[in-house]
Structures are given as C-alpha cells and as structure tokens.
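sorry to bug you again but im stuck and you know this stuff better than me. theres a chain ive been looking at and ive put its sequence and its fold in token form underneath. id like you to explain what the token line says about the fold, in plain words if possible. anything you notice is useful, everything is just below.
___
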Amino acid sequence: MLVDRLSVDLSALTRIGGRLGSNPAGVYEDAAGQRYYVKETESVAHARNEYLAAMLYQLAGAPTLCYLHSSDPCCIVTRWCELAKKNVQHFSARERAQAQHWFALHCWLANWDAAGFHGDNQAVAVADGRVLTLDSGGALNFRAQGDPKGKAFGKEVHELNTLRQDADNPFAVQLFGAMDDTEVRRSLAVVTGLADRAIEAVILQHHGSEKLVAKMLARKAFMLEW
C-alpha cells in the first residue's frame, strides 16, 4: 500500500459510486475494471499537502492506501481497497492496539482527523487484516476541509494530549484516550527513530519547503523530550 507511479487520467474513468467521507469524492472504474477512490481538494496546495503527509506516514512504515498521481492536480487518487471494518467502534482489542502503535505518528503529523469525525478514518483491510489510515487530508498545514491551520500547527506537539483528551474529537479519545505513558512512549519511538535526512528528503521531494522541514524536525525534537 505504497505509491504507484502510474498517473491516472480522470477523464478516462467512469463514476460508479459516491463519496465515503466529508469531501467531494467518488468511486471510479477504468476500462480494465480497476477501481479508484478520487477525492477533490480545495486547492493544489491542499492536495500536495495530503500526498506529502501520506508519504511521511509511509516513511515511518504506517499502512496507508496506495496513492497514485492524478491528471487533475487538485484531486487525490488512491487504489480501491476492500475493507473488513470501516469504523473504530468495531475494532477488536488487537486492532485497537495496531492503531495505537501509530498514535505518535498522527501527533507528529498533526493529523487532527486521525480517527475521523465519525470514527471512519481508521479501517481494517480485507487483504491482510492491517489497520490503515484512510485519509491524511487533515495532517500538516491544512484542516480536513482545506482551511490552513496557521499558527495552530507549530513546533510543539500538543496533539500528544489533545488526541487523547479533546472532547470535541470523541473518536480520537475513544481510540487513544486509554493509552498510558508507557504506551505513548513506545509509540513515540516510531517518530524519534526516523532519520532527519530521510524526513528532509521526503518533504523536499514532494513539494514541501525548507520551512516545513525545520518545523517537522523541531516537532521530532519536542517528542524526544516528552
């Protein structure tokens, strides 16, 4: 579930289903029967931001959907993935533990929508039973609907608390709130073990800025001191 270098020509696809989240989107199929999920974003910058966030998830080894390049720079295209479970409320204890392993990664990436507004941003894949993040549109510089986070996305990782405690994010609290400090520190190692040069390379290769590199390294340093 990594990156496919294929560029998908959206004009050659047929829409066969509607959106599954809060953003304008749909399920599409090509002439060979391959299905895709195509999501419209607010801008090229928002689309690039989501794609970059997905690449950083993958750098850390976190399961994501398979992202493809799109003929429309404002759209995010992923290969269709059959899901066994589509909501955190249905997770088993083992599946919750899988999701919690990536808690600090969600925090580092400032993915406020990690669990989903309706608990539907974490799911279990039919193919291998892994828990994966379905949408990274609310990570890094933008909120899920495309509004810039501004100063709310800074060098300190307040998400280590808010994703476990914020009553306005109930499914994140349901998924991560019971984690104790030992479990959080174990999750922190997912981020703190990443090489600075690898982080820099991924960001700069996917339209990120030197300013974002500095911020993400500062956020990693903050987590090292937690």
User: Anything to note?
Assistant: Residues 83-224 form a domain with the Phosphatidylinositol 3-kinase Catalytic Subunit; Chain A, Domain 5 fold (CATH 1.10.1070). The radius of gyration is 17 Å. The longest strand covers residues 3-8. The chain has a mean pLDDT of 94.
